[in-house]
From TrEMBL:
Source organism of the structure: Thlaspi arvense (Field penny-cress)
InterPro entries: C-JID
Repeat in keyword set: yes
Residue intervals of the C-JID domain: 80-153
Name of the protein in its database record: C-JID domain-containing protein
Keyword list, A-Z: Leucine-rich repeat, Repeat
Amino acid sequence: MGQEMLTSTLVLNKMRKLVSLPQIPGSLLFVDAMNCKSLGILDCSFSNPRIDLNFRNCFKLNQEARNLIIQASTRGDVVLPGGEVPAYFAFRSSRSSLHVKLNEKSLRKSTQFRACILLVNGAKFCDLFSLECRVTSKQNARTACITKEHFPGQIFSEHLYIFNVEAEEVTSTELYFVFDLSLMMQPGPINICIKECGILQL
C-alpha cells in the first residue's frame, strides 16, 4: 500500500488514491490519514481506546466510517471533517461554551468527559493549535479543571477536534464548560473560531 508502518504508528498521509482502509493491528497508538482525499470506507476497527486518529481533509468518509472514528477512541485525540457536533455527544451547544447537568449518582472523585469542538471560518495554517477547556462548578464557582490540548499540523475549517477532559473532585451536578483556542507563533488575529461544542460523560 506504500504506507510507512511502525510498531505503534500507521502513516498514510497524502495517499490520494486510497479508497478504503483494511483491518489494522490492534497495538497501534496513532493513525495518520491526513489528505487521503479518496478515502471513504473503513473496513477496520480501532481496538486501542487510547489511539490518536488524524483524518484531516478526508471529506469522502462515509457516515459509518465517521461514526467509527468518533466513537472508537475514548482516550486519544481525534480530528476529522464535520459540519456539526454529532448527536453522540449528549450535551451540545452552538457556541464555544455549554452547561452540563449530570446525574447525581454519576458523580465521582474524578469524572471523565469526551469533548468535541467544531472549527470554522479559517484557511489552513501550518502551525500548532492550542486548545483550552475550563470546567467550572455552578454551585460554588469552583474551577474543577483546566485542560490544555495541542493539535500539531494544518488546521482546516469544518473539522471536528475530539479530546478528553478530566474534572477532579466534582461535587456539583451542574458544570460549565468553556473552550478557548490560540494559534502558537501565529501573528495577527486568529482567523478561525469555535462554532459548536459538545460533551459526553464517560
